Amino acid sequence: MRLQQPVFPDTVHFGRNSFDLLPTRLSPLREGGNALIFLLDPFFSGKPLHQRIPVEKNDLLLLPDISHEPSTAQVDQLVALVRESNLQVGAVVGIGGGSIMDLAKSLAIMLNNPGSAADYQGWDLVRYPAVYKIGIPTLCGTGAEVTRTAVLNGPRRKLGINSDHTPFDELILDPELTLGAPAEQRFYTGMDCFIHCVESLGGKKQTEQSTFYSTQALSLCREVFYEPKRMDACTQEKLILASYAGGMGIMNSQVGVVHAMSYGLGYVLGIRHGLANCLVMDKMDEYYPAATEEFRELLSCNGVTLPSGVCRDLDKDTLNLLTDVSLGMRPLWENALGDDWEERMPREKLRAMFSSI
Ligand code: NAD
Ligand code: ZN
Predict the structure, then answer these.
(1) What is the mean pLDDT of residues 323-340?
(2) Which atom of ligand 1 is nearest to the CA of 69?
(3) What is the pLDDT of residues 196-220, one digit of tens each?
(4) How far apart are CA 34 and CA 28, in angstroms?
(5) Considering only CA atoms, which of 160, 181, 196 is closest in space to residue 277?
(6) Residues with beta carbon inside 6 Å of ligand 1?
(7) N or C: which terminal CB in the chain sees fewer CB atoms within 10 Å?
């Protein structure tokens, strides 16, 4: 059991055009000839944001492939690439959605720790502090900018590097950067936040702090997604704060049934986190009845139709693998169902729940 308070980013810059602070914030990190590593979401390749990144001579600006969710192998490749360049790294800066946030956190950790990123998937396995890291989200909802986990697909399962060395040291939360997100992507990633709140508030591990943050985040999600036509910097300010508060909420508690199942869908079927969560949330009448109703209202309000029959024709082995991966998420089940979760969620029941998706 962890007795101390979770570690949070020390410095948070919030507001429109706060991205402009970046050159000033980076300058002390360059002292002593340090180079900086920028990981930019490839969506922005060649776009104005790309040109605004203050890259200098020795820096590396990388555009990692995020057509699949990040993996431990991908992190190992990034580490090898940076090591080959023989740079003395002053900071890692991640600019993008949750995938880039997790890659940046993992890279910063692995530059100072031996072995493969897969060795650190789990809880409190990281030995040495990471390189200084700055997170600049361009999508809102995952909370990856604030949490103490960096979620990766590994050789055996999808699992985060959960540690006190994982959170960013510094954040720049600039709503202007999130404005171009397509409506459907914005919805799926935004619903990740909604679901974080539902699972945190509906779980056994909630605390005064998590209740506070999750309640605030939930109310901001409602303001944003019940009025979907309005997508401007003001709404995005609310959403970026919701994501941050939702992340703080789960940092002080835990997620639940939806995430335990969606990790399986992500790992086994390669379904992206936001969509995977939504597919599961739509089937949660037994566990989160009021929130499931509300979620369906939000789907309709935002004109989103979920794909159906995703798991209908899966063979027995695949369904078993989904079930195994999901049941491996012990802390999530404990939070959702209590210490006797194994009796309350027998394999057959979970397999049938997957089949219904
Ligand atoms: P994402 O980062 O995977 O990006 C989805 C798509 O949106 C990509 O094609 C990306 O290029 C594009 N994109 C990003 N910003 C954009 C913008 N402003 N405009 C247009 N397109 C943009 O999506 P996500 O939902 O933010 O992140 C999902 C990932 O986050 C998953 O890998 C999941 O496991 C992880 N996650 C991590 C945590 C954590 O606490 N560490 C929590 C939840 C989810
Ligand atoms: Zn999530």
Answers:
(1) 96
(2) 32
(3) 999 999 999 999 999 999 999 999 9
(4) 9
(5) 196
(6) 41-43, 66, 69-70, 96-100, 102, 138-139, 142-144, 147, 149-151, 178, 180-181, 185, 189, 192, 272-274
(7) N
| Token representation of residue 263 | 């990790």
Angle at 210 between CA 109 and CA 301, to 5 degrees: 100
Cβ count within 10 A of residue 167: 25
Q: How far is CA 322 from CA 153, 265, 310, 350, in A?
A: 14, 7, 13, 9
From the list 125, 135, 115, 131, the residue with the least C-alpha distance to 163 is 125
Closest among 138, 66, 137, 148 to 106, alpha carbons compared: 148
Residue 130 Cα distances to 10, 35, 182, 231, angstroms: 14, 15, 33, 36
Instruction: Give, using CA atoms, the residue closest to atom 37 of ligand 1.
Output: 144
Phi, psi torsion values for 159, nearest 5 degrees: -155, 145
If we measure between CA atoms, which residue out of 48, 72, 203 comes closest to residue 138? 48
Categorize the per-residue pLDDT at 231 as very low, low, confident or very high, splitting at 50, 70 and 90.
confident
Which secondary structure element, helix H or strand E, spans residue 327, and what is its range?
helix 316-327
Give the chain's length. 357
Tell me the pTM.
0.96
3-class SS of residue 170 = strand
Q: Distance between CA 251 and CA 248 in Å, rounded?
A: 5
Q: What is the pLDDT of residue 322?
A: 97
Token code pair at residue 88? 């003395």
| Average pLDDT of the residues in 139-164 | 94
Q: Which ligand is closest to the CA of 258, given by its number?
A: 2
Categorize the per-residue pLDDT at 230 as very low, low, confident or very high, splitting at 50, 70 and 90. confident
**What percent of the residues of the chain are helix, what percent strand, and what percent coil, each to the nearest 5?**
50, 10, 35
Residue 12's beta-bridge partner residues? 171
pLDDT average, residue stretch 114-127: 96
What residue has token string 């693998």? 321
The dihedral built from the CA positions of residue 193, 137, 175 and 188, taken in this order, carries a sign that is negative
Is 267 in contact with 153 (CB distance < 8 Å)? yes
In sequence order, which ranges of 143-288 are alpha helices (DSSP H)? 183-201, 208-225, 233-251, 257-269, 273-281
User: Is the confidence at residue 168, as pLDDT, over 70?
Assistant: yes
